[in-house]
Amino acid sequence: MEPRRARAVARAAVAVAAVATFARGVANPLVASWDDGRFLIDFEPVKHVSLDSLARIWGEEHFQAWHPLHLLSYWIDVPWVGPTGPPIHAVNLALWVIALLLVLRVFERLGLPLWAAVLGTLAYGLHPIQVEAVTWATGRKEIVTLMLACGAVLLHLRSAGPLDRSAWGSRALYVLAAMAKTTVLPLPGLLFLADVLLREVPWKRALVRQVPALAIGAAFSGLVVTIWSDYEMIRPGDEGQVGPGSVSLVAATFTHYLEMAFFPAGNAPVYPIYRAGEIGPGAWIGPLAIVVAFALAWRAGARRAVLAIAGFAVMLLPVSNVIPVYFQFQDRYLSLPLLPLGFGFGAALAWAVEHARRVPWAPWAAAVALVAALGLRTAQYTEAWSSDLRLWEHTVATHPTGFYAWMKLGEVQRDAGRLDASVRAYGRAVEVAPALRLGHAGFFNAVALRDERTQGLAPSRALDHAERYHASLDDAAALRDLAGRMAGDGYRDAALLALGRSLDLEPVDDDRLERAAATRLARGERWLARFYVARMSRPPVLSELRALTPR
After folding, report:
1. Which of 123, 251, 385, 498 could form a disulfide with 283 if both were Cys (CB 3.0 to 4.6 A apart)?
2. How is residue 28 annotated by DSSP?
């Protein structure tokens, strides 16, 4: 097949495979409970093309970040069709196809044979990690960043020196990529590795070529840390959580992302948070594997493998929890670091084909089978994003110790009016992380809403009571006062929840509990009398209270 025709067929194969894998997610609605609501439904500047919207997008921080190109990308569709899932997902998929064609070109320019580059591109682009980029509307930032980053790489590879037009064009695209998502900031390190390992540029000259981009990256890094600090997005390590400077957390981060890269069976929008004392020696498997693989590749002179391994580590640095982020792990954080591994997959295939003597087709068959398995897993995972409820049910099923997943499931069930299910979900959140006050507040709110429904209470004051409960969690007197007010307003289970926590903080003896039960029974408040009796450690003396003893 002539080269031009082969290249056209290769591009078509990439496009068809991407569409076939992600097409079932196009019909999904927006996931309002997971950023689509605040980015697309509630955020006015992306819904109106105007100078005022443009000024707001470029001139202000939004959603704890300054990513104007990400927000501006929604002008492709949202102002014309509204914040509606299928059109936005269709645009995401179209942009993803374009991005993967750019990835294919990058892999070719880095020296991979055409069909090895195709399979490397598909291993990267059909990986389950990429579901957040393509099937989640708010994940578009990953796609925009990837497109601009690939453009920066291609222009860099075309440049002949540090000051020519292509070199400055590469830096300009790098700046634009950082305006879409700042996880791209280590890209100059990847370009340095490509120059030294594949283009045989002396390391000092390669470093000089990256000085302007490194200065730009440092400025963006300072901006990111400032924004994170302003919005308290850097995890302080309180409430039993792993704090700043935890080397073990960084090790656990590399291990987690290596596991997700090579064994993507438990993908989820959020993962359980490591807390103090929970990181064992297994966290060091990832860093050790990287060091050993790097050493072996270096000793063997496998320059492409060295680039893949070192490039992965370099691109992961912004999200490695050296500065601990609020959510320690996210699938989308792996979207760009997976790119060097995709190149490494293609390079390994090319090497295997070159050295396959007895069964020359075996490497191709194995590579195609692996890519097909990734694509099938990805298509399966897109189903989890078909609704808010499906997403969080999937997340708690795959990661039952995830506090925030149970919180989100409770929230979605609550908003859908499924209050019993909401109470159960929030209750699991409290069981998973009893020290986190937010779980107690969510649980209390759901119980109070259920009281309002069963007791016919209106207007709703559940949220106000929950906020007061949250503020009074460690104040027994305030909790007693809250319980009294709520009982007077007709709340039952929520009032007992506040009263029970008060008694946990300041226990009273059985005699006082029995007197309180008798008083409440005399007032006709049998439900409250039963509560006091249930708290007693001995049977009641008064005969009228014995009938209330739990059997």
Report:
1. 251
2. P
176 pLDDT above the threshold of 50: yes
C-alpha distances in Å from residue 530, one per residue of 39, 119, 351:
48, 68, 75
| Total residues found in the chain within this entry | 551
110 contacts 3 by C-beta, under 8 angstroms = no
Structure-model confidence comparison of residues 429 and 548, the more confident one: 429
Comparing C-alpha atoms, which of 329, 328, 318, 320 is closest to residue 241?
328
pLDDT(248) > 70: yes
User: Please, are residues 426 and 416 in contact by the beta-carbon 8 Å criterion?
Assistant: no
CA–CA dist 543, 546 (Å, integer): 5
CA distance 295 to 292: 5
pLDDT-derived band of residue 3, with 50, 70 and 90 as boundaries?
confident
DSSP letter string over 367-382? Answer: HHHHHHHHHHHHHHHH
> What does the pLDDT look like over 76-113, one tens digit per residue?
999 999 999 999 999 999 999 999 999 999 999 999 99
Cα–Cα distances in Å, from 426 out to 92, 251, 417? 33, 31, 14
Tokens (6 digits) for 82: 């509204």
CA angle 336, 28, 263 (to 5 degrees): 40
Residue 363 amino acid letter: P
* Rg of the chain on CA atoms, in Å: 28
Residue 539, Cβ density class (10 Å: 0-12 exposed, 13-18 middle, ≥19 buried): exposed
* Tokens (6 digits) for 383: 């189903």
Residue 339: closest CA among 507, 514, 112, 87:
112
